UniProtKB/TrEMBL annotation:
Residues 22-279 form the EAL domain. The chain holds residues 359 to 643 of 643 of the full protein. This is Diguanylate cyclase/phosphodiesterase. It comes from Deinococcus maricopensis (strain DSM 21211 / LMG 22137 / NRRL B-23946 / LB-34). Signal peptide: none annotated.
Amino acid sequence: KSEGRNGVGVYTPDSGEREEHHRRLARDLRVALDRQEFTLAYQPIVDLPTGRTVKVEALLRWTHPTHGPISPMTFIPLAEANGSIVPLGTWVLNEACASARAWQRAGFDVKVCVNVSVIQFSQPAFVATVLQALATHDLPPHLLELELTEGIVMKNVEGVRATLDDLRAAGVGTAVDDFGTGYSSLAYLRDLPIDTLKIDRSFIKDLVTDEGPSTPAMTLVEAIIRVADVFGMTVVAEGIETEAQRDALRALGVGCGQGYHFARPLPLEGLLASLKLDQPADSTP
Ligand code: C2E
Ligand code: MG
Ligand code: MG
Ligand code: MG
């Protein structure tokens, strides 16, 4: 039944079958790049005071020939486990740089934010791959930001520092993704050249209840903002779904936000249309 057209997630939650399903997906991942089964979706990140799009996060999408769309939460770990994340990650970087260059040509100076897996980041050639992608697509480095997980930041601190230093020197931005869900040591964070903290959406979810803003949740977000301030980092709040959440985050002074309230991840053409709406022709360079 896992071969059927309507087989998306239909397998019973029996762990043996699930394992078999994942084994097949992992095998299929190895050829999926050659078969052009991947695309990127693009989600705006807006400046909260003005509502303007300042960055765009590139999110990988896989349409499996028989199972249909597979969530990155499912296939990224499989791609990490069998090494296919390395060529896949390089493809994402190049595709994202090409898109950002196209936006720039259309008059929109928005950064593209690319998720990077720890396996990719640990490759000796990682920085060279990033620089190559920028050069190939003629993208200025300040229009690229790499999103790293707390796991990366905490691993092998010396090697990580050297890589981050190289990226900083090249002018490429860095962000810690899903901040607050991992085990970041504040001492390490202070010492690393990181530009942005992305507050995980689990903190945003509880921000406003039916009775209004929740004091403990607000206090927690406030504390993260302070940490970012002290370290000279900017903040992006993830997973903003309501106007009330946006207003609360604005009031706290959070710089940027991302979430379904503003826009869902969009195909390339949809993103460009949204940029055009967002920044009318007379205000673009
Ligand atoms: P992430 O980097 O934290 O990306 C944000 C995720 O939250 C995306 O899920 C996005 O669609 C979703 N999201 C955005 N706004 C909202 C909202 O308002 N509410 C809710 N409930 N969700 C929202 P997606 O696209 O399924 O990606 C999941 C994760 O997969 C990403 O989390 C990232 O860790 C990973 N991922 C995606 N693309 C790549 C990639 O190219 N490379 C690597 N290594 N990982 C990727
Ligand atoms: Mg991300
Ligand atoms: Mg995130
Ligand atoms: Mg997240």
